[in-house]
Amino acid sequence: xxxYFIWNSKMDxxxxxxxxxxxxxxxxxxxxIATIMRGTVVCxxxxxxxxxxxxxxxxxxxxxxxxxxxxxxxxxAEWESAVPYNWEIPWFYKEVEKFIxxxxxxxxxxxxxxxxxxxxxxxxRDTSEPIGAFPSAxxxxxxxxxxxxxxxxxxxxxxxxxxxxxxxxxxxMHARGLNRYKSCPRGCTADETTxxxxxxxxxxxxxxxxxxRSLGPGYxxxxxxxxQ
Length: 228
Prior knowledge:
Elements: H1 2-7, H2 16-19, H3 33-50, H4 58-75, H5 91-102, H6 115-124, H7 136-146, H8 153-164, H9 170-175, H10 194-200, H11 202-215
């Protein structure tokens, strides 16, 4: 439902796993509802296992009985052997171990097992989206500029969609069976891609040159984004 609302269509223009990353890493920071819900349940189970203000609670006793052997396997933890434990994790607790291994949360301290902190740790492991042949440092700088707080949402969306290849140009529409032709409809023989629209198209070149002249001699217009 979230992605249908964003795109106003069942067709995603950008991969969903990319959309979940933060703005400074080339995405939109869309909430991962499934991971948030799983993380909330896992945090509750882990807190009941490792720390509880009232150790007589049924949830605490049940979590310790089933999950402490899991912690021994994961981190080599030791506990009082006089307390009974179950060595076989039931199916409804195996999701806890799966979530911890999947997101590399074994070393998380007991006090950090809250949904917000866990989600922050998961998102911190995301890598920035690459931009063509540019080095990673340049890509990071570009994404920071695209997500600048000085831009309006509309001004952020256009360059972001262009860099992600999600603008509805003819090549994009043709690849998804929404257009019969992928060539530029403005008298060009080239395919209408995002790069062609913003950098190769003759009218775009004239417009950029005119804009460069209006900025004065100190501004240099780059006719190509290709790197060596």
